[in-house]
Specification:
Shape of chain A: elongated
Number of strands of chain B: 0
CATH architecture of the largest domain in chain A: 3-Layer(aba) Sandwich
CATH superfamily of the largest domain in chain A: NADH-ubiquinone oxidoreductase 51kDa subunit
Helix content of chain B: 55-70%
Largest interface: A-B, 72 and 43 residues
Radius of gyration of chain B: 21 Å
Helix content of chain A: 25-40%
Largest sheet of chain B: none
Oligomer: heterodimer
Structural class of chain B: mainly alpha
Number of domains of chain B: 1
Strand content of chain A: 15-25%
Strand order of the largest sheet of chain A: 1-13-12-16-14-15
Number of helices of chain B: 18
Distance between the termini of chain B: 54 Å
Low-confidence stretches of chain A: none
Radius of gyration of chain A: 36 Å
CATH topology of the largest domain in chain A: Rossmann fold
Number of domains of chain A: 2
Chain lengths: 519, 346
């Protein structure tokens, strides 16, 4: 062990009541396989995957149900063995509340495993691309909540020097990573070793907030057992939102990720501890991502706890396993108390990004007070981890003056919600920023569409104009040519006519003269 | 089961505007007590009149604007304005002067701009400056502090009420007997008469740092200010910058000409410097917002206060300095946008 690692701090942040003990005192429990599993085709960042099974087909546990249709995409796998009964729209957990395409399986209770992914226990003999391919085919995405395909992140290229495993878990109520670190520390360390090998680097730092001493001890012990001096477990102060990738990097290295860049630009790769464990299972056991640890918490559920849940399990089955709802249940939040989104129904499945189900009572999630005018106290700027001026952003966002948001870096906002929680005027600032972002994206899209339409229109006009002028030119040339031929002929005719007339006149005059002389 | 909609974050602020304003009022309690101890019950009377007029004016304008009256009044900001205004006025002030100041503070300083959050100027200072310019004679008569045998007679509560209502002292009392000018005013006048600072300060009005009584009122104002800092109701940048902006030039000139320029401690502990630094310049609505901007804003107030006190026509300059720097706030804010995360050190 090195002496204590130097730590930095990030701007702002908040010390929030954790409410972690609500869920992390019970041991990690396992939810039995339900009768029906619902697997959405799009449960990651990127384009949805494409089904490779048909209705009526029998599938095994871990069998791929879909394939990636692009680079930033990820397949989904059957949570258990059974029969595909439907492929089509079904309610999914999404802030929009809209349905999404899902593959629905009626399980057979056998839980027969799929044998398509042989364990790669010899992973040290394989190179980065081969390990990335395994991670990709096993459908692994970031389990911290973002669900970005891990294989894409691992393809960071040269210049990488540090792997950070994020076990900070700073958001109130969530304790799934805490539970995983306590109970599956060896898997996390194995995952770290696989990742270090795949990335060809020698430095891994696992960061845990100070309010999780059991998890820290458990990981320390696992590192000692693995006897791997490349891996260091570091305790960091408990400040929200330290689990944010950019904030954690700042705490551990003192460096900032460029606003328009990614951590790999400064040689750092950040993965959630759960993702590392999933990588270990995919590589060492040949097990695709078919389950995850979910925190079920809040005063609206009878027995809050952490559970290992098969992906695709309907939320109501998970809640049932926790003794059902209490009379106080008012809100169902997927995610934590700061960034989680509200669900209208529990008929949606657990997906790869489901880290927490917060069943809130009115005490957990109090109704918003009506907002009053901003008094410019600037507390929002004091706590903003992105070092923005939320009150200025609010001022312009509220007035729809989106062009004026530019110097205030709206898109640096990570929507952590700190500004909301300190606002004495109770202004829903984060909502305004989400609104402004979507509005700017929509306008950008509209502008691009109208630009495209205008370009097409202008090109068409030009084409017509060109064709017209071409036609005109040809016509003119023709007319000119015609005129030329015609004019030479005509003038000849005129001259001939005049000459004829002159001759005739002359003849007549001569005749007259002869007649006169003779008369 | 259907669930109620909600949008993140799901935690609610533990603070509110009325709580902030309430803490500001609380922080003024010790200073109020000290003030009444040294200068008599006039302050309480002024507070009563200013608050009544301010609340009435705010209610009337809100009603005229077709806005709900209850919620904006309950944020207590109008009471803070009235109380600060009362602090700025002399202990004996005729009611119509106080009422005019309160009316202008609330109506012209605040509501005509759109109410709380929209006023570019500090409302209390708007009201104060209006009466300072309109009724200068009433605003220069100050009582000497009690307990130092500085005056033959002190006006009792009855005399205070009589003066407040009529603008005249009761029979048997005159300003020659009961009072005089503020220390800052006196220093300015005496220096004008070619006396040295030492001669002026040798007079019985003056204490260790500033003037008797004023020192202690200011000590309690500092105490209240530190409380607000501790409670994070205000941040340190503005008070520190105001005091430094005043003290640095004061020290410099005192070192150059100790006979002509009063020492920096005198500047600090006489007049409204401390009240201005902790309670007036820190009004968030009319102040700069970024940390750097607040330092500039505060330093400007301190510096302008020194300039006005030393070379201007008024004995104290806090009010004018605050209003002038209020005008500069949009420009300061524009040039002090903090560097956002990931945007390099340019």
């Amino acid at each position: 062990m090195e002496p204590d690692r130097r730590l930095w701090r990030f701007h702002g942040g908040l010390h929030l009541p954790g409410h972690k003990r609500l869920s992390n005192v019970e041991p990690l429990d396992i939810v039995p396989v339900p009768a029906r599993l619902i697997h959405p085709l799009g449960q990651h960042v990127g384009i949805p995957s494409e089904p490779v099974v048909e209705v009526g087909e029998t599938v095994q546990r871990g069998q791929p149900l879909s394939r990636a249709t692009g680079y930033i995409c990820s397949p989904v796998h059957a949570g258990s063995s059974g029969t595909v009964v439907a492929i089509g729209p079904h309610p999914i957990p999404h802030p929009s509340g809209l349905d999404g395409d899902c593959i629905i399986i009626d399980t057979d209770g056998q839980d027969m495993p799929y044998e398509g992914y042989p364990p790669l226990t010899n992973y040290r003999t394989l190179n980065g691309p081969a390990l990335r391919a395994r991670v990709r085919e096993c459908g692994i995405v970031g389990l911290g909540g973002a669900a970005f395909p891990t294989a894409v992140k691992l393809n960071a290229g040269a210049g990488l020097r540090l792997l950070i495993l994020n076990g900070a878990e700073c958001e109130p109520y969530i304790s799934c990573d805490d539970s995983l670190m306590r109970h599956r520390a060896a898997e996390i360390i194995a995952g770290a070793q696989v990742l270090l090998h795949a990335l060809e680097i020698r430095d891994c730092c696992i960061a845990i907030e100070e309010d999780k001493p059991e998890a820290f001890a458990s990981l320390e012990a696992a590192v000692r057992r693995a006897d791997d001096n490349r891996i260091e477990v570091v305790q960091v102060p408990a400040v929200y939102p330290e689990g944010g990738e950019r904030q954690l990097i700042q705490v551990l290295t003192g460096e900032e990720v460029p606003a328009a860049g990614i951590p790999a630009d400064i040689g750092i790769l950040c993965q959630n501890v759960g993702t590392a464990a999933a990588v270990a299972r995919a590589v060492l056991y040949g097990e695709p991502l078919i389950s995850r640890v979910v925190t079920v918490t809040g005063h609206g559920v009878t027995r809050p706890r952490n559970l290992e849940v098969r992906l695709g399990t309907p939320l109501n089955k998970v809640i049932d396993h926790c003794g059902g709802y209490t009379d106080e249940a008012r809100h169902l939040i997927m995610g934590g108390a700061m960034m989680g989104f509200a669900l209208a129904t529990d008929a949606v499945p657990v997906i790869k990004s489901t880290n927490c189900l917060l069943v809130g009572s009115d005490a957990d999630i109090a109704p918003r007070q009506p907002a009053s005018a901003c008094i410019r106290c600037g507390e929002c700027a004091q706590v903003c981890p992105a070092q923005l001026l939320p009150q200025q952003l609010y001022w312009h966002a509220r007035a729809d003056e989106f062009d004026k948001l530019d110097p205030y870096h709206l898109f640096g906002c990570i929507e952590c919600g700190c500004c909301d929680v300190v606002c004495p005027s109770q202004i829903p600032l984060t909502q305004y920023f989400r609104y402004a972002k979507t509005e700017i994206w929509a306008r950008e899209r509209e502008r691009r569409q109208s630009d495209h339409a205008r370009e097409r229109f202008e090109t068409r006009n030009q084409r017509i104009e060109r064709a017209e002028s071409e036609r005109q030119r040809r016509l003119e040339a023709k007319t000119r040519a015609l005129k030329q031929t015609r004019s030479s002929a005509a003038s000849k005719a005129v001259i001939d006519e005049v000459m004829a007339r002159v001759r005739a006149k002359k003849a007549a005059d001569e005749r007259d003269a002869e007649n006169g002389d003779g008369g | 089961m259907r669930f109620a909609p909600a949008s993140p974050p799901h935690l609610r602020p533990a603070t509110s505007v009325s709580r902030l304003m309430g803490e500001v009022l609380l922080a003024l309690v010790p200073a109020t007590a000290a003030y009444v101890w040294y200068f008599g019950p006039g302050l309480l009377l002024n507070m009563l009149i200013a608050t009544t007029v301010a609340v009435a004016a705010e209610s009337a304008v809100l009603a005229l604007r077709g806005r709900p009256v209850g919620a904006p009044l309950s944020d207590l900001s109008v009471i803070v304005t009235a109380v600060l205004l009362a602090f700025a006025l002399p202990p004996l002030t005729p009611w119509w002067v106080t009422a005019t100041a309160a009316f202008f503070a609330v109506v012209f300083g605040k509501q005509l701009f759109g109410g709380i959050g929209y006023n570019p100027f500090n409302p209390a200072m708007v009201g104060y400056v209006v009466v300072l310019i309109s009724f200068p004679a009433y605003l220069t008569q100050w009582l000497p502090p009690a307990g130092f045998d500085l005056a033959a007679v002190r006006p009792d509560l009855g005399a205070t009420i009589y003066y407040t209502l009529s603008g005249q002292l009761p029979d048997g009392l005159s300003w020659d007997v009961i009072g005089g000018a503020t220390p800052l005013d006196q220093v300015k006048t005496q220096l004008g008469l070619m006396r040295t600072v030492q001669e002026v300060r040798a007079q019985p009005l003056y204490g260790v740092f500033g003037a008797h009584g004023w020192e202690w009122v200011n000590n309690f104002i500092i105490l209240g200010g530190l409380w607000l800092l501790y409670r994070k109701i205000i941040r340190w940048q503005i008070p520190l910058a105001v005091l430094l902006g005043l003290m640095l030039p004061a020290t410099l000139f005192y070192l150059i000409g100790p006979g002509t320029y009063p020492p920096p401690t005198f500047h600090l502990f006489s007049g409204a410097a401390v009240l201005g630094a902790f309670f007036i310049a820190t009004d968030p609505v009319s102040a700069a917002t970024s940390d750097r901007g607040r330092l500039i804003f505060g330093a400007g107030i301190g510096l302008l206060t020194y300039v006005i006190r030393t070379w201007g026509g008024y004995p104290d300059g806090i009010a004018f300095a605050v209003l002038l720097m209020n005008m500069a706030v949009p420009a300061i804010d524009h040039y002090t946008i903090p560097r956002a995360y990931g945007h390099g050190h340019d």
